[in-house]
Design brief:
- There is one protein chain.
- This protein is α/β, with parallel strands linked by helices.
- It folds into 2 domains: 133 residues, 3-Layer(aba) Sandwich (Rossmann fold), CATH 3.40.50; 102 residues, UDP-galactose 4-epimerase, domain 1.
- It is built from 11 helices and 11 strands.
- A 7-stranded parallel β-sheet has the order 3-2-1-4-5-6-9, with helices on both faces. The protein has a two-stranded parallel ribbon with strand order 7-11.
- Bound molecules: NADP nicotinamide-adenine-dinucleotide phosphate.
- The site of NADP nicotinamide-adenine-dinucleotide phosphate has 24 residues, from helix 1.
- Pfam families: NAD_binding_10.
- This is KR domain-containing protein.
- It comes from Streptomyces galbus.
Length: 281
């Protein structure tokens, strides 16, 4: 049986759909923090909260494979993922697929320490692993793309650094492949879109897709933080956004080697198609 955590989340829901194309319903379990929000899932649903180790033990009972979708509570994730790994070991899981972040072993990325710490916990457990080091989602830019249509402007402190985002759907498909196909155990994949882009290129892509004039204005990190605060963002969000953009300016998300398209067997969604899809949604 395959258990997928974060089962109500965007990535997990798409991964469940892809796994179900290959594996029968009886083989898939969605482990969710809020079962009441999962009634539309066409698989068995079990309660599992990363902060409640007992719930993980029950949710993983009988499982052979685990898709451990990284949690969302920054600063708590190593503890949470450790609880999940311990429950997986207790349940006799033989393979953990974990959603990590790009080049976490060498990167200055603000999220790297929690992901490398989590990868180490999984490796030290002795269970077979697959690390999916996912680059950014196109969808992370949905608010900026919509705002660009209104204002003609994309603002950030990413400089002319490139990032190789892909559609969340493509990463979800890769997770399903890593679970269901043979040959992916004890492998680490740096997953990214086929083509990297800069914020200036995002602006010109939005302009091409919509016909509106859109430009990118690069600003200093301090000004970026001030603007985010003025827009009502919390301190954690402000530090994460401006920190990531600083990482991008230094090239932390630029790497792409075609691993994602090879894994899923087709090209990743082009940025322009992602912009069209986001604006149509
Ligand atoms: N590569 C990227 O660009 C990128 C961007 C954003 C996030 N991420 C990472 O990738 C993961 C998947 O992305 P996503 O877009 O699917 O995120 P998402 O839609 O926010 O889904 C995250 C899921 O994790 C669940 N969760 C959070 N805390 C939990 C806990 N204590 N116990 C059990 N479940 C918990 C949430 O449950 P509820 O439904 O109950 O809230 C939610 O269903 C994220 O969690 C994050 O670690 C990556």
């Amino acid at each position: 049986m395959i258990v997928i955590t974060g089962g109500n989340g965007h990535l997990a829901r798409q991964a469940i759909t892809h796994v179900r194309k290959i594996a029968p319903r009886e083989r898939v379990i969605a482990a969710v923090r809020r079962p009441e929000a999962a009634t539309d899932l066409d698989v068995e649903v079990r309660y599992a909260d990363y902060n409640d180790p007992g719930s993980l033990d029950s949710a993983f009972a009988g499982a052979d494979q685990l898709l451990l979708v990284s949690g969302t509570e920054f600063g708590r994730r190593i503890t949470q993922h450790t609880a999940a790994v311990e429950a997986a070991v207790g349940a006799g899981v033989s393979h953990i697929v974990y959603t990590s972040a790009p080049r976490v072993d060498t990167s200055d990325l603000v999220f790297a320490p929690e992901h490398i710490g989590s990868e180490q916990v999984i490796q030290q457990s002795g269970v077979d692993y697959t690390f999916l080091r996912n680059n950014w989602y196109h969808e992370n830019y949905a608010p900026a793309i919509r705002e660009a249509v209104r204002t003609g402007l994309i603002v950030g402190n990413a400089g002319d650094g490139a990032l190789a985002s892909a559609a969340r759907q493509d990463y979800a498909e890769a997770a399903a492949v890593a679970l269901v196909q043979d040959g992916h155990r004890n492998k680490t994949y740096e997953l990214a879109g086929d083509v990297s882009w800069t914020y200036a290129q995002l602006a010109s892509t939005v302009a091409d897709v919509t016909g509106y004039a859109v430009t990118y204005r690069d600003i200093e990190p301090a000004e970026r933080r001030g603007r985010l605060a003025a827009a009502g963002a919390g301190q954690g969000e402000i530090e994460a956004i401006s920190g990531i953009e600083e990482n991008i300016s230094q090239g932390a998300l630029a790497h792409t080697d075609g691993s994602l398209s090879r894994l899923i067997g087709h090209p990743t969604e082009a940025l322009a198609d992602g912009v069209r899809r986001i604006l149509a949604g």
